[in-house]
Amino acid sequence: MRRPSLRTGVATLVLAAVALGVWWVADRPAGQGGVSPQVATVGSGRAADVDGDGFEDLAVGMPDAPVQDQAGAGKVALIHGSRTGLTVSRHQSVSGSVTGDTVRPGDRFGSALALGDLDGDGHADLVIGASGRTAGGEKGAGAVTVVFGSRSGLSRTAVAFHAPAPTPGGRFGGQLALGDFDHDGLDDIAVVDGRQVAVVRGAKDLRSAGAEGITVHTPPGGGGGTHRIATGDVDGDGYDDLVTVAHDDDPADGGALGVLPGSRAGLKDTRLGDRVELPFAGYTPVVGDINGDGKDDVLLATGFQDGPDKTVLLTYPGSADGLDTAGAVTWRGPLHPGDTARLADLDGDGHDDLVVGDVHAVNSDVLNDAGAITTVRGSARWLDPATTRTLSLDTEGVAGDAESNDRFGSTLAQGDYNGDGTCDLAVGAPGKRHGLGGVGLLYGSASGLTGTDSIIFGPDSLHDPVIKASFGAALGG
Question: How remote is the C-alpha of 346 from its chain's centroid?
Answer without folding.
Answer: 16
